[in-house]
Specification:
- The complex is a heterodimer.
- Helix content of chain A is 37%, strand content 26%.
- Chain A has a single domain, classed as P-loop containing nucleotide triphosphate hydrolases (Rossmann fold).
- Chain A is α/β, with parallel strands linked by helices.
- The relative contact order of chain A is 0.20.
- The radius of gyration of chain A is 17 Å and the shape is globular.
- In chain A, strand 7, helix 8 and strand 8 (206-211) form a beta-alpha-beta unit.
- Chain A has helices at residues 2-8, 61-68, 91-94, 114-122, 130-139, 141-144, 156-169, 186-203, 214-220, 238-243, 245-252; strands at 21-32, 35-46, 50-54, 76-81, 84-85, 99-102, 174-178, 206-211, 223-228, 231-237.
- The model of chain A is unreliable at 1-14 (pLDDT under 50).
- Chain B is globular.
- In chain B, helix 1 (2-32) packs antiparallel against helix 8, helix 1 packs across helix 9 and helix 5 packs antiparallel against helix 8 (186-209).
- In chain B, the strands form two sheets. In chain B, strands 1-4 form a two-stranded antiparallel ribbon. A two-stranded antiparallel ribbon of chain B has the order 2-3.
- In chain B, strand 2 and strand 3 form a beta hairpin.
- Chain B has helices at 2-32, 39-55, 60-83, 91-113, 140-162, 164-174, 176-181, 186-209, 220-233, 238-258, 266-280, 289-293; strands spanning 118-119, 130-131, 134-135, 213-214.
- Classes of the chains: A alpha/beta, B mainly alpha.
- At the A-B interface, helix 3 and helix 4 of A face helix 6 and helix 7 of B.
Chain lengths: 254, 294
């Protein structure tokens, strides 16, 4: 299923051809005190594809995304976006470079309304046409109905839709998603992943997805990277990982 | 009856000043989770700047504008230089720094401007209006105070509700990390927030000084009332700060006007009101704790 989708992917909005390395991580090492959460991680996310980073709780998945976007500063290694070193770039600058990071736990700003949340996401771009907001509301009709409600009144699924919609308003070339399926009903997960697949295939978006829910993630991803205790265990196509029963049992829990 | 009206009018005028001071505290608390104990000293500093200008022959209005502008600069510099290093760390560190700033600024004012009592001009008359053959406790200066605070609040509401920078400030106040990931320059918003809060605090200082005497510690009593008003309102809510200020102003005015030897009970009454509010609604009357928990 995944390879069929991969074959239909079109070129990215940023002009980067499908399959070229958009985001590269080289020997990335991050530590909290003496504990190394990431230990020399090297991986890449290709343009126009969904790359899923999988692994158990504590494997370093969240730290990986936080280090890529600058929230955690690495002790070693580099992060390259389109060949440019962004390891030391400030967090605030990442989104204007084309990288949108949706943090774990549905990073809605609970005290703001749905509409205000979206507007915050577009602030850095200056004036943004109303049609772009309408497009997000078209993608997620459920949040369109609630645009004037405070974000803390939304359900988990609606929050996930809001933060993904907000990230899309930044017109990113690559979307970093941290555990988008966490705590959501399988039906909602399928809906959100299906939409991601659609955006990747039809608009050339690239996604680096971090998931504990390996089965769902592999069903939508093109490439899988298995992380264990801060190190990359294996990188392969999603279908190959799905087929490797020993690996699934050992690291992915299904 | 006319006595009741007078006591109410006095309470409203005072309450407006408490509200402005409480609003300044709330603005800082919302964005940086720091209770700015130095607010009174900061306001006193800018009031003394205004006084120096008035004494040098400037008009009150020009001096007011310069004082508010210097309040903005002072607030912004303090956030950037002194508060930034302790932001996000142990809460006690920020409290100690703010208290140290409070003492240091007050001492600095005494060194620069002297510590004697000096009279501060009021821009409008201090005699009550006449209604029929009676004078009421509403003075032209009182109307100016109420008007100035209301205009300031409306400007702030407009800033937060209708402008892009206001939205960025609110986002930064509620969620720094998410805002940074969305490209909002959170550091700049915090500096701006402290600057604006210092302007509102300075306004409170200038208004309460008008027609009275100032000395380096003249804001100390207002600090107590301002804190109580902010906490009554919930410390998180600008509307709460205003309502808290008015409630406190009215309550203290009634106590001072009706209780036997009431004027000596004012300060302790403020603290009793604070205790009662905290016992009944620990988060304050307008606390948004339910919203935050989500």
């Amino acid at each position: 299923m995944a390879e069929a989708h991969g074959a239909t992917a079109v070129s990215a909005t940023g002009g980067t051809a499908t399959g070229t390395r958009l985001l590269e991580v080289e020997g990335l090492t991050s530590a909290y005190g003496p504990v190394r959460a990431l230990d020399g991680v090297t991986l890449s996310a290709e343009a126009g594809r969904i790359t899923a980073v999988l692994g158990a709780n504590g494997a370093g998945k969240t730290t990986l995304l936080r280090t890529i976007s600058g929230l955690v500063r690495p002790v070693a290694g580099r992060v390259l976006l389109d060949g440019k070193d962004i390891t030391k770039a400030p967090v605030e600058a990442m989104v204007s470079k084309g990288m949108a990071h949706v943090p774990e736990g549905r990073g809605v700003i609970a005290e703001l309304t749905v509409d205000e949340n979206l507007r915050v996401g577009s602030l850095f771009r200056g004036k943004v046409a109303k049609s772009e907001f309408d497009r997000i509301y078209d993608l997620f009709p459920r949040i369109a109905e609630r645009r004037n409600n405070h974000a803390h009144t939304l359900s988990g699924g609606e929050r996930q839709m809001l933060v993904i919609g907000r990230a899309l308003l930044a017109q990113p070339r690559i979307l970093l998603l941290d555990e988008p399926s966490l705590g959501l009903a399988p039906r909602i997960v399928a809906q959100i992943f299906g939409l991601l697949r659609q955006l990747v295939d039809s608009e050339g978006l690239s996604v680096l997805l971090v998931e504990q829910n390996a089965r769902s993630a592999l069903s939508v991803a093109d490439v899988g990277v298995v992380l264990n205790l801060g190190r990359v265990v294996v990188t392969d196509s999603a279908s190959a990982l799905m087929g490797d029963e020993d690996l699934r049992h050992a690291y992915l829990g299904f | 009856m006319s006595y009741f009206v007078n006591v109410t009018l006095t309470g409203l005028t005072q309450g407006m000043i408490y509200a402005a001071f409480a609003l300044a505290l709330v603005l800082i608390w919302r964005s940086t989770r720091i209770v700015n104990f130095a607010q009174g000293s900061m306001a006193a500093a800018t009031t003394f700047i205004a006084l120096a200008l008035v004494q040098a022959g400037w008009s009150y209005w020009l001096a007011l504008v310069v004082a508010l502008a210097s309040g903005f600069v002072l607030g912004a510099i303090i956030e950037r230089v002194i508060i930034r290093p302790v932001e996000g760390g142990n809460e006690l560190n920020a409290v100690i720094v703010a208290l140290g700033l409070f003492v240091a600024l007050q001492a600095g004012i005494a060194i620069v401007f002297g510590s004697s009592f000096q009279s501060f001009p009021a821009p409008f008359g201090l005699e009550g209006f006449s209604v029929g053959d009676r004078r009421i406790a509403l003075t032209p200066n009182g109307i100016y105070i109420i008007g100035a605070v209301i205009v300031t609040m409306l400007l702030l509401v407009a800033l937060f509700r209708f402008t892009r920078v206001g939205l960025a400030m609110r986002a930064s106040a509620f969620s720094q990390e998410v805002s940074r990931l969305l490209g909002v320059k959170v550091g700049g918003m915090l500096t701006l927030g402290w600057g604006l809060a210092a302007v509102v605090g300075s306004l409170a200082g200038l208004l309460i000084a008008g027609g009275g005497f100032v000395y380096p510690a003249y804001m100390d009593s207002l600090i107590v009332f301002g804190f109580v008003a902010a906490i009554i309102g919930g410390l998180d809510s600008p509307v709460g700060a205003i309502v808290g200020g008015l409630i406190l102003g009215l309550a203290l005015s009634y106590i001072s006007g009706y209780a036997p030897r009431g004027s000596s009970l004012v300060t302790i009454s403020a603290l009793v009101i604070l205790m009662v509010v905290l016992l009944v609604r620990p988060g304050g009357l307008f606390s948004s704790t339910t919203a935050r928990r989500a």
